[in-house]
Amino acid sequence: MADRDLPTFADVRRAADRIAPHARRTPVMTSASIDELAGCRVHFKGEHLQRAGAFKFRGATNAVLALDDATAARGVAAHSSGNHAAALALAARTRGVPCHVVMPRDAPRAKRAATEAYGATVVLCEPTLEARDARLAEVIARTGAVEIHPYDRPAVIAGQGTAALELLAAVPAIGAVVAPVSGGGLLAGTAIAAHGVDPVVTVYGAEPVAVDDAARSLAAGRRTSEGNTTSIADGLLAVLSDRTFAILRAHDVGIVTVTEDEIVDAMALLYGRLKQVVEPSGATALAGLLALARAGADLPDDVGVILSGGNVDLDRLPFCAARR
Question: Whole-structure pTM over 0.90, yes or no?
Answer without folding.
Answer: yes
